[in-house]
Amino acid sequence: MVAQVSAPGDFDFAECVNAHGWRSLLPFRWNAETRTLQRVEQFGDTAPVLLTITPIEHGLSVEGAKGAPVDEVVRRVRRMLQLDLPIADFHSFCTGHSKLSHVPRARQGRLLRSPTLFEDYLKVVATTNTTWAQTKAMVARVVEGLGAPIPDDPGLKAFPGPERIAAVSLDEFAAVAKMGYRNAAVHRVATDMANGELELERLQDPCLSANEVYKSLLALPGVGPYAASCLMIYLGRYSRVNVDSWARALVGNELGRKVTDKEVHVFFEPYAEWKALAYHFYPWRKDEPAA
DNA sequence: TTCCAGGGGTAGA
DNA sequence: TCTACCCATGGA
Fold it and tell me: Is nucleic acid strand C under 7 Å from A178's C-beta?
């Protein structure tokens, strides 16, 4: 199966994939040399397939095993790469702010996300109060321990959905995932979703206000202000900065003193409804803290 | 051993 | 609203 996916002119494949660390979390696999993104996806109860995404002129090429449902493949790819996100307004905003003028030139603004909000939820929870190395290890254990493999390579597995996680006990999940005190929260959300008591995807409803989305996210176990703000980014809502230790350190560096979370929010106040993107694309690098 | 990492939940003030 | 404390895990 080969599908061609059109992309808007303000989209850049590598910028989107490299905008944050998600490319390093299974089942994503990013090859920087070939500029190829791979990911195992499962469609219904059929065997998972490996998708290979590469940039072509005016869009993307997606290759997968014969029989993969093209329409659904395209839908998921468009979602993962935020191809339908109206980023033009943010780009216009950036041209009026010296600190962000590089953003539209580089065609930045989109962030790689997962095909489901549940996967992004689990991964965001896995970033809290831990190191990036442990985040990768937690996610890898979840995928390798509970994900369904593709037929011709058992080493490549799909991300397990909430039903799969809910099918095992909390103790079993904890033994596999080793997410520490996060185990209970993740298993709870998976179980509630599997039981039909929780519909995470409804948070994509554009009719909901940003505050309604934020409060709904805060109500999820394991989700506090940081995680809720992170998840809002994947929902195209940028009015809250996801204040983490980096934000405190970097804003503290800009101001020359230790800062509170409230002061970080005040620092980004001029960026209006684009605060989270402003923080993310502010001219500092997370691997190179401002001197 | 002890500390702590891209926080969250809770109690108490 | 703010502070203090504990929370599993694993690396330093």
Answer: yes
The predicted pLDDT at position A287 comes to 44
In the predicted structure, residue A72 carries a pLDDT above the cut 60: yes
What is the C-alpha to C-alpha distance for residues A14 and A83, in angstroms, rounded to an integer?
Answer: 13
Give the CA A121 to C1' B5 distance in Å. Answer: 19
Residue A90 CA to residue A200 CA, distance in Å, equals: 26
Percent residues over pLDDT 70 in chain A = 98
CA of A184 vs C1' of C5, distance in Å? 20
Other beta carbons within 10 angstroms of residue A274's beta carbon come to 22
pLDDT at A19 exceeding the cut of 70: yes
Q: What residues does A51 pair with on adjacent strands?
A: A39
Distance CA A115, CA A75 (A): 9
What values do phi and psi take at A125, rounded to 5? -60, -35
Tell me if the pTM is above 0.90: yes
**Is it the case that residue A132 has pLDDT exceeding 70?**
yes
CA pair distance A74, A228, nearest whole angstrom: 28
Q: Which pLDDT belongs to residue A67?
A: 87
Contact A1/A43 with Cβ under 8 angstroms? Answer: no
Say how many C-beta atoms besides its own lie within 10 A of residue A65's C-beta.
15
Is the C-beta of residue A185 closer than 7 Å to nucleic acid chain B? yes
